[in-house]
Amino acid sequence: MARIGVFICHCGENISATVHVVKVAEEIGKLKGVAHSVEYKYMCSDPGQSLVIDAIKEKKLTGVVVAACSPRMHEPTFRKACENAGLNPFLCEMANLREHCSWVHEKNETTTEKAIDIVRTLVAKVQQNAALQPIKVPVTKKALVIGGGVAGIQTALDIANCGHKVIMVERSPSIGGHMSQLSETFPTLDCSQCILTPRMVEVAQHPNITLYTYAEVEGLEGFIGNFKVKIRKKSKSLDEKLCTGCGLCTTKCPQKKIPSEFEQGLGFRTAIYVPFPQAVPNKPVIDKENCTYYQKGKCKVCEKVCPTKAIRYDQPDEIIEEEIGAIVLATGFEIKRTDFFPEYGQGRYKDVIDGLQFERLASASGPTKGVIRRPSDNEIPKRIAFIACAGSRDPAKGIEYCSKICCMYTAKHAMLYKHKVHEGDAYVFYMDIRAGGKMYDEFVRRAIEEDNVHYVRSRVSTIYERGGKYILKVADTLMGAQPQEMEFDMVVLATAGVSSPGAEELAQTLHVSYDQHKFFAEAHPKLKPVETNTAGIFLAGACQTTRDIPDSVSMASGAAVKVAALFSQNELTRDPLIAHVNRMGPPMYSTCVGCFMCQSVCPYQAIEREEIKTRDGKVIKTLAKINEGLCQGCGTCIALCRSKSIDLYGYTNQQVYTEVTALLNEL
Amino acid sequence: MSDFEPKIVAFVCNWCTYAGADLTGTSRIKYAPNVKIIRFPCTGRIDFMLLMKAFQNGADGIIVSGCHPNDCHYSTGNFHARRRWMTFRELMDYMGVDTERITFSWVSAAEGARWAEIVNTTTEKVRKLGPYTNYQNLVKLGIEEEL
Fold first, then answer.
1. How many domains does chain A have?
2. Each residue of A535-550: pLDDT tens digit?
């Protein structure tokens, strides 16, 4: 016979003002199975909790219902109290009398009746509850960081400095990401490479960090604390141990006119190349698509000139499998290219460039050695236009969000131009200026007031070319002016930031959720910004949404702390509210018929195949089996299971059917 | 019929609609007391036999509500619930179950006011439809298994 204790809280006046709590306690006390029913002013207070603890001990209660606020608020409090009294915490339920009753209804009999119904439902449910034990899983204290931009670098260094092993995977030949391409950074105008490259070197030299460049994640199995990752290390056609990074091969390679990705197509590289001089690792890779040897079967110049004989044309891709405990995604972002904008020439005009191209022009290490020159004729532009919000905040283009970084980098670009071309004229055409951040608005003011950049509030409707000049159709909307045409030598589009190519495929490989723009989705927009909904996988930087360097770095450190906190435990404890497949003796073994419909709907790949075998190894039956580490307890498989063989602890069929019945029937 | 108070059961997910209903409370938005909530981890857990069970036990209306598409805590549970609802609605229509009495909706954790609105409109709608005696009579006839 069940002995349920019911504890009804007044919550000061929050509940008792509209619900007749004494009557609720009386009515509930009459129910079958209820051994104890009391009300008290504040159940969550120490004396209130003592009421629960003492009653459990004195009346030998087999279950507890606390009728108070939302279980989302105080369920852990009362489950802990039950545990202290020696009652399994999962035998405690909360009835939500405050948020779902007293706060939303007037004071009358109906409200009190509803309160009784709510408590009665939970009293019926708790009688079906089972004592559950938390699940313990071991933790592999090694992290995987995907992406080697500034966010990945920061998070890898932070985790490694906590004393944990880190594997960093970067798909391009060098780490550094977009930050290594930038000339100067806002709002201080300090040199981007100067602050980043020491960090890059630190990653390469850190004893706790293993770096795989030119590599991609191909597969992931397992669950929090116990992942197994498959990494494809693409062939660099190079024995990295022998290569000294002397760079002789890159100077002798006959293929010299390949547009450089690092220079955003404004400069050239060879077929065997190091992306940029400060690359980490500073060792070349062969771009097989552009290499004469791979395409035509002869050349081998690099092999001939290599002083250490490090070139390996027949090197295959390498598959590396690693066991890891946590993953940080730091795959960054990309920007829309000029060919995305038909109204701005669709990439036909050589002097209409995007923000990253301007960064390369402004960079001392760039193709023009830091002199701003038009890509078409190498002339220094005397009039330059910057168009903000190119693509961003434009639902017609499918990018309704603000890319956040463009206002600031446009101000920086205009400023850099003015610092380099003193007599030149810089115009910024903008929608709004969004410069929230420490010293950000001051930075924009400085561009306008000190550097005399002309800010015109206007949407540029079109650009066309006339005699080597570019004509922009603009209308100053603050003046209420008529549309006019303005002539410029060069135009820079602050194009929208978008998710990194391949982000969707990676999300599907790792089973993390992503939004409609293919940015990875955080677990909670405010309170869990670095967690994903997949336990053990965290986010850093612009892979979640476009963000600037300070934000990326702080987020990266945040993610690192989450990983370090996870690794501070030898074992993980999880709520055991997960699915299970029923089992019984032979000859049935289970009512599961092995249709594996459940496998197709499980978002966590938690359903495995279990073979029941005879002693000599003959398979009698194949059953579904729930991997306890992977299952998150959503219960989708339960509703789908046609033979009703799966059930969910905490929300068993028995429990929920009892709830429905109890809610509607006065017992 | 004016004094008829419908009994409505709401099957909601823990992460969005339950939290949304909590917000309704925190914001002190008043709504009809006819709806009583049963908490599930996810709408994906909601077996539509539970809806039949509710009608069998005298419910006049039902609300099923979870996270908006793409917002599911478990990434895809709400899509399964939606697909199940599309399929079951046709089947229930065919069987003669009044699907007008079932409200299927999305309420996020930030939509306290929307929850109150859904409760009120559903209550009004079911109040107009009257008590769902047809199904309960079937149960009494023994066509459905008695409790």
1. 5
2. 899 999 999 999 999 9
